[in-house]
Structures are given as C-alpha cells and as structure tokens.
Amino acid sequence: MKPLVRPSRLAPGARVAVVAPSGPVAEDRLQAGLDILRGWDLDPVVAPHVLDVHGELGYLAGSDAERAADLQQAWCDPSVDAVLCARGGYGAQRMVDLLDWEAMRAAGPKVFVGFSDITVLHQAFATRLGLVTLHGPAAAGVDFVKNAGAQEHLKATLFAPETVRVIASAGAALVPGRARGVTLGGCLSMLASDLGTPHARTSARGGLLFLEDVGEQAYRVDRMLTQLLRGGWLDGVTGIALGSWAGCGPYGALRAVLADRLGGLGVPVVEEFGFGHCEGALTIPFGMAAELDADTGTLTLDEAALR
Question: What is the pLDDT of residues 204-222, one digit of tens each?
C-alpha cells in the first residue's frame, strides 16, 4: 500500500461546498455548521439538494441521482477548494456508482471530509482518485456544531496541518507495540458491506486500519470482524486503531470481542483512540504513511496531511 496524493491546505477565503451524499440534514444544524465555517473565514456554499428528503425513502437526502450530482458538481467546480459532507446516515453506497470518476479525476485534488456512512466514499476516493481524504466531523453533525475540540482539530488539519502531524489520543494498548503503514478505514459496518464492490479497497495489507462504529451489538461487531477475517481482507494489516463504539452495549463485552477477533493478528492494536461517533472526535487523514504507537496512543504522520 502506497501513500496517496495530498490535496492543498485551505487558506482564508477558500470556498467549501457542503454536500449530503447519504441521509437527510437538519436545517438548524446545517446553519450552525455554516456559521462555524464562516467564522473560520471560509466561504461555504450549500449544494442544491442538501436539505431534500427522498419522497418515499425518508432516510435519504433526495434521490440517488440528485445526491451524486451534488457531489460531482461540487468536486468539478474549479472555484471550490474543499467538499465537506453535511452528515452520514445511509445512502452513499446507492450513489457512488453514479459518479463520473474520470471527470472528478480531471478536476484535480481537493480536500474531502466526512465520516460514518461516508466511509464508502473514502474508499472510492482512494481507489479511483488516489487521494488523501480526511475522516473528520460532519459539517452539520452534533459533535461539530457543539464541541470545540472537534472543531479545533479539524480547523488545524485544514489550515495548519503541520501542527497536527502527531495525533495524540487517550487510548491504551489492547495489543502493545508500534507499527508503520498507510492509514485507511472508517466505519466497520460500511467496510464489511463494501467488500467486493467496484470502488472498495481489496485488502488492508500494508495499512494502519482505523475502525469504529455506532449502534451495533457485540455479536454484530463479531460478525463483521469475522467477515473481514474470513475474506482475507485483514491479511497483512500492520496495525489497528479502534475509535468510538457509541450505542454498542457495555464496553467490557465489546472489548472482549475486539481482543478475541483482532488479538490473533499479531499486530499492535490501540483502543479508545477518540475518532468517529464520539465527543471531540479527532480528524484522521486516510492515505498517509504513518507510525502507530499503541503504547502511547499516538499516530505520527510522515508529513503533513495537506500540502
């Protein structure tokens, strides 16, 4: 696994497009997120269908074609420097195959931010565009609009990425040790459901894998990790960082599953790394060469995530 192409950092006045590739967006939270972005001296523009709700499938922000068109138009607009996802939810898998990847590649690299269901797009941006992306807060997400820690870490990554080359967490070693590799990952359930699809990574070999999820019982986490193990997707992974597991039941029971399923890989594993569905979520760049130290709970990037 090789490091991917780094987009350029943002500067004051940069135009950022907000899109909704997955679920519907609450207007009040969207406005709160836009206010924060304006406070950073950014120029946010909202894609046409961000506040839409599918007529029959209320868990989608408009039709698949509309959500894909919003993302593609934002990405291909030369005046846009970054594309931020308003939220996750569900729906990225339904629209990812409608994107014109040749046109998006021709538009050149730019910053892309999101998490949760957006894991599907992180994978596609890696395989189709060869581009570093940011697993970070959603622009209309509760954590982003209410938590200063999440805001400041994303802001530093966007504007001064050299200041966050070392990403420190309060995590502890589930399996001790240090490992090098290229960062990748996201939401476990999305990685499992993305297996075998046209835009997914075929393997985590050579990678530092970041995993988190929300609302999944321990046996479901077991099932998804077992799927990745049985499919050989985890063969050759060099290290693993575990993020938040909100709504996944008592952590002690879940921790036993994580240790049972991942401990046999013989690689360092750090738990409670502080990214994903949690307060003050860290922004994790995907596609970067880095070192993971499970004993100190740190990720050290070889270079700044953005140029």
Answer: 999 999 999 999 999 999 9
β partners of residue 180? 291
Contact yes or no for 304/162 (Cβ under 8 A): yes
Cβ neighbours of residue 208 closer than 8 Å, sequence gap 6 or more: 179, 180, 181, 182, 183, 184, 237, 238, 239, 240, 241, 290, 292, 299
Which residues participate in catalysis according to the annotation?
A: 116, 212, 277
DSSP helix/strand/coil, 260: helix
Question: How many other C-beta atoms are found inside a 10 Å radius of the C-beta of residue 168?
Answer: 15
Two tokens, residue 135: 């697993």
* pTM, 2 dp: 0.97
**Cα distance between residue 264 and residue 270, in whole Å:** 14
pLDDT digits (tens, 9 = 90+) for 85-140: 999 999 999 999 999 999 999 999 999 999 999 999 999 999 999 999 999 999 99
Q: Is 122 helix (H, G, I), strand (E, B) or coil?
A: helix
Q: Mention every residue, 6+ apart, whose C-beta is less than 8 A from residue 264.
A: none
